[in-house]
């Protein structure tokens, strides 16, 4: 799926990396630039409930649903907001998708990753939600939450920009599929942003899962690898930064995508990534869900938690999503003390080492003139990219907790 790229073919490798990874938070001219689009809920008002995801419509719909349901706790919200994603991004948040999630509740944080190496009737997305319900002592079943969504959701979800891009890209294959075409075509074209998404029968989804429940061979991974910076700051990631420290990069042939979303209430939060490989376009049992494989390149995940502060980061949409988090750590992510500092790092210029041939891709529009000038002196092909990767974060500092979205890609947050 991806290959190791050992950067030993470059002369003066360490000098090269030092030049490009000079911590940019010391560049006052660059750090003083205000973001054009807000990346997180402002701190000028108290925020007790946050949603983050690919579209504002789904967040409004969810808020309207839960306003009429008293006494929902955090795990109830966890189940409902996850299940709603089946209607929001049925391409990447399908029952067959890989499910990665960071959870903070009380004083503890957790990482869970659910996927299967079996290709037959494996539903790790639903398995993972149910697994978390049981782990946190919830007695309610998936069917309980499915019934709520069946009764309240209807056809309120609208197509978001990311999902429209997927439909347009796969127009011919969807049109040729007799199960999916009736759901996603209007006349001779696929549904577009802000048009109504097809209603999903959650009861049928649960029946499908229960029929195949005894066949589930789901791998549950909870392990992360610790890193320690030269200044002694520690964190844990699902990619081994020792490889990157030795200029060994994990480069994928393709750019894997994922649906990122999260929810927080006081003292509890989760940030999730769901993704799947779609080698062919097929429906799941006649439902408006896309059938895929969960054995797909994972999003890169890091947890940095020191002295009561929390910084989570999830990276995707890159041929090597771990590289971007590695660079953020070198730039000084673990030392950040405010959400604004983390936001500046996420919005800063990114670069990516690639192979065949060996080259460097950089976001020159976000780079300082000095950085570009130094790079041009190096004996290495350098190419410009309008944008590289996608990184979302969750922070919890003394000032409060916030989700941060990347301005490079579609995404919205709701604060109340």
Number of strands: 22
Structural Rg: 21 Å
Read across the widest sheet, the strand sequence of neighbours is: 7-4-3-12-11-2-22
Percent range of helical residues: 25-40%
Distance between the amino and carboxyl termini: 42 Å
Q: Main β-sheet: number of strands, strand sense, barrel status?
A: 7 strands, antiparallel
Shape: globular
Q: Low-confidence parts lasting 5 or more residues at pLDDT below 50? A: 7-17, 20-35
Number of helices: 14
How confident is the prediction overall: mean pLDDT?
Answer: 90
Strand content of the residues, in percent? Answer: 25-35%
Query: Structural class given helices, strands, pairing?
Result: alpha+beta
Structure description:
The protein has helices at 13-20, 28-31, 56-67, 74-88, 124-135, 142-152, 161-169, 171-175, 181-184, 202-211, 241-245, 321-331, 339-347, 369-376, and strands at 2-6, 50-53, 98-105, 108-115, 185-186, 189-190, 219-221, 225-228, 234-237, 248-252, 259-265, 268-275, 283-284, 287-290, 300-306, 309-316, 351-354, 359-362, 382-384, 390-397, 400-404, 412-415. It has 416 residues and is an alpha+beta fold. Helix 4 (74-88) packs antiparallel against helix 5 (124-135) and helix 4 (74-88) packs across helix 6. Helices cover 30% and strands 26% of the residues. The longest helix is centred in the N-terminal third of the chain and has 15 residues, at 74-88. The radius of gyration is 21 Å and the shape is globular. The chain has 14 helices and 22 strands. The strands form six sheets. Strands 7-4-3-12-11-2-22 form a seven-stranded antiparallel sheet, with helices on one face. A six-stranded antiparallel sheet has the order 8-9-15-16-20-21. Mean pLDDT is 90; it is low at 7-17 and 20-35.
